[in-house]
Amino acid sequence: MYDNRASESAVTADDIKIEAKGVNVHYGTTHAIKDVDVSILDKTVTAFIGPSGCGKSTFLRCINRMNDTIDVARVTGDIRIDGEDINDARVDPVQLRAKVGMVFQKPNPFPKSIYDNVAYGPKIHGLAKNKGDLDDIVERALRRGAIWDEVKDRLHAPGTGLSGGQQQRLCIARAVATEPEVLLMDEPCSALDPIATGQVEELIDELRRDYSVVIVTHSMQQAARVSQKTAFFHLGNLIEYGDTDEIFTNPKDPKTESYITGRIG
Amino acid sequence: MNNTHISSAFDRDLEALQALLMKMGGLAEEAILDAAKSLEGRDEDLAQKVREGDKAIDALEDQINEEAAKLVALRAPIASDMRLVLSVIKISANLERIGDYAKNMAKRTVVLNQLPTQDGAPQSIRRMAREVQHMLHDVLDAYIQRDPAAALEVRDRDADVDQMYNALFREFLTFMMEDPRNITACMHLHFIAKNIERMGDHVTSIADQIYYTVTGQTPDDARRKGDITSVSPLDV
After folding, report:
1. Structural domain includes residue A203
2. Is residue A3 part of a domain?
C-alpha cells in the first residue's frame, strides 16, 4: 500500500539463482579471484564492475565453467545454480553451457546464414523434433533478440553481413535459442555505437523477465542503466555488492566510491 | 578515498560551482545585515542598496543552475559528486529566498520611515537578524569544512530565532491592542520579523543539505520547533 517506487527498476524477485561461496581462481601463480561469496538473483540484471584485471570476467567465466578450457586455471570453492553444484564431476559442461548462455565482447556470429547461427544450438541439443519446430524456435529466438523484423526477409543471408549491433543481437538470439536460464554477457556493447548499445540495453531489460542476466561492463553508466544489482570487484576481491541505486548514490565502501566517481583509488 | 578526480577538469568544475555558491552566501549575509541596519538607522540609501543588491544574488542563482546543468550533462556525476551538485542547486535556491526576504525587509523599511518610530522593535529585529546572519555564516563554514556535526549544531540554533520571533509577535500584538494607530507600522514590523524567522528556516534547510551531501542520509530526528504562533490562540 505504501509502495512509492518511482519506477520498476527495483528488484522484484528475491529467488537466488546462482550462489557462490568461497570461490578462488588461480592462473598459474596469479591469484585472480580471492574468496568471493555472492548470491545472484533470478529475473534480475546483475552488473560486475571494476578496473581492468580485477577479476570480473574471470568470475563470470566460472559460472559456465569456461575456465575449464584454460590449462593453468584452477577454480576452487562452491558455485551452485538452483542449488546444484556446477563443478560436480557428474555435470556435463556442454549441458551446463546450454543452461548458462554467454555473449561476448565482440559479436562472433558463425560464418553461416542468420538462420543457421540460431538453429545450431537447438539442433545439437536436440530441441527440435522437425523442421517446422526448428523454424519456430529460430523465429522465437530472433524475436527475443529484438532483431526478427530486421532479418526476417533474409534469414539465409550470412550472419557476418549484418551491422555490428545487429550481429550482437544475433548472438544474443543465438544464446537464448537453447532456452537458457542464465545469460552471461562479457562487455556486450563495447564494440557497438550508442544506438546499437541502446537497443541491446533495451533487450537486456526485456530478457530480465525470463532470465537471470549477469553483465560485465566497463561503462559505469551502462551498469547504472541496465542493472538492479551491482558488484564491484577490485584486485580479485568482491568489495561491495548491493542494489544498483544504492551503489551509485551512496556506496558504502570508499574503494567503490573512488572507482565509480573516477578518482584514483 | 582520494579526493581528486582522474580528470582534473572535473575537479575544477566542481570547485568553480562551489565558489559561486560561497559568493552568493556572502552576498546574502551582507543583505541580511544591511537590511536590519537600514531599518534600525532609518537609512533609506542603505535600504535602496539592499533592494538593488538582490539582483546580483538572483543572477548568481541563475548562473549556478546553468553551470550545474552543464556539469550534470557533461560529467554525469555519481555518488558523492552527484550529491554535491544536487546540494549546490538546492542551497542556491535557499540563498535566493534569503535574498528575497532581505529585499522585502528593505522595501518595508522605506514605508516604515514615513511612520512614527516603534520603540525597541527595530533593535530586537536587528538582534534577530544578526543571529540569523551568524547562523548562515556558520552553516556556510560547515559546508566548506564538510562538517555534518557543525551543520546540525547550527540547525538547532534555529529554535532561538523562533523564540525571538514569538516574543516579537506578542509584543506587536500588545502594541496594536494598545493603540490601533500602531497597526500599520506593527504589521510591517511583524512581516519583517517573520521574514527573518523564515531565513532561519532556510538556514536549517541548508544544514540538512550539508548533512546529506557528506553522509548520504537525511537527518531524521525532528528538529526542535520553536515557532508556536501558528498553533496558538490570539490572547496574549
Report:
1. yes
2. no
Euclidean distance between CA atoms A18 and A165, whole angstroms: 29
Q: Is residue A11 part of a domain?
A: no
The amino acid that residue A5 corresponds to is R
> What CATH architecture does domain B7-215 belong to?
Up-down Bundle (1.20)
Amino acid of residue B175: F
Distance separating alpha carbons of residues B91 and B98, to the nearest angstrom:
11
CA distance B14 to A236: 32
Q: For A239-261, give one letter per residue: b (16+ CB within 10 A) or e.
A: bbbbebbebbbbbeeebbbbbbb
CB contact under 8 A, A264 and B4: yes
CB contact under 8 A, B6 and A224: no
Give the model's pLDDT for residue B4: 86
Average pLDDT for A216-242: 94
> What is the helix, strand, coil percentage profile of chain B, to 5?
80, 0, 15
Question: Which amino acid is located at A108 in the chain?
Answer: N
C-alpha cell at position B191? 512581516
**pTM: predicted TM-score of the whole model, two decimal places:** 0.80
Domain boundaries, chain B: 7-215
* Domain enclosing residue A175, as ranges: 42-57+93-260
Of residues A251, A255, A265, nearest to B79 (C-beta): A251
Compare all CA atoms of chain A with the CA of B5 and give the residue at the minimum distance: A263
Q: Give the pLDDT confidence of B187-229 residue by residue, as tens digits.
A: 999 999 999 999 999 999 999 999 999 999 888 754 555 666 7
Give me the pLDDT at residue B236, please. Answer: 44
Which CATH number do you get for residue A215?
3.40.50.300
- Considering the domain boundaries, does residue A184 fall inside one? yes
ipTM of the complex: 0.71
Number of domains in chain A: 1
Q: Give me the pLDDT at residue B219, please.
A: 86
